[in-house]
Amino acid sequence: MRIKYTLFTLILVSFFSGIAQDKASRGKVKKAQKAYYIGDYSLAVSRFKEVLEIENNNYSANYELGRIYLKHFNYYDSASLYLGKAIENPTKDTIFESYLDYGSALQLKGDYKTAIENYEFFKSDGLKDNSFAELLSITIDRKIKECNYAISETKEAQKKHYFSKEYGS
């Protein structure tokens, strides 16, 4: 009987602490978003990181951090890290643009193949109910062409390097 009571108490405490934790992280997300919207990106980064200390897989915090690093600080490694975490932990409110942003971060850091995969996923799934589908589709096609071009140029540069090392020219 005592074991059942202890188990019930643990479950109840876990449940209510989870609710409290969720409320705390939601409040912190709102504060971080407010800092972002007024243009205080450093404060927003600090606040989103506070959310991640409470809830490491918080989609909103990972997504917003990734966008800040991508769009405002040009830290592509950090952007791809946080955007990658966001899409690894999708929610019912997942924003398909996170795949587009993740692809952009990957492209900018030179991971062209994975960028193409994310662009293609966004194009196939993210444009279904998007009023800007035609315009975005053209943009995504351009980004995919850029990645394919970069891949081919990288291969060509590798061939030239190999032949110059091998044959001394």
What does this structure look like?
The protein is mainly alpha-helical and 169 residues long. The protein has two domains: 1-56; 62-169, Serine Threonine Protein Phosphatase 5, Tetratricopeptide repeat (Alpha Horseshoe). It has seven helices and no strands. Helix 3 packs across helix 5 (97-108). The longest helix has 36 residues, at 2-37. The radius of gyration is 22 Å and the shape is globular. Residues 5-21 have low confidence and may be disordered.
Short structural description:
This protein is mostly helical and 169 residues long.
Structural class: mainly alpha
Measured as a percent range, the helix fraction is over 70%
Taken as a percent bin, the fraction of beta residues is: under 5%
Shape: globular
Number of domains: 2
Characterize the biggest β-sheet: none
Average pLDDT figure? 85
Tell how many strands the DSSP assignment holds: 0
The number of helices is: 7
Look up the CATH topology of the largest domain: Serine Threonine Protein Phosphatase 5, Tetratricopeptide repeat
List keywords for this structure.
Serine Threonine Protein Phosphatase 5, Tetratricopeptide repeat; 7 helices; 83% helix
Secondary-structure topology with pairs:
Blueprint: H1 2-37, H2 41-54, H3 59-73, H4 76-88, H5 97-108, H6 112-126, H7 133-167
Helix pairs in contact: 1-2, 1-3, 2-3, 3-4, 3-5, 4-5, 5-6, 6-7
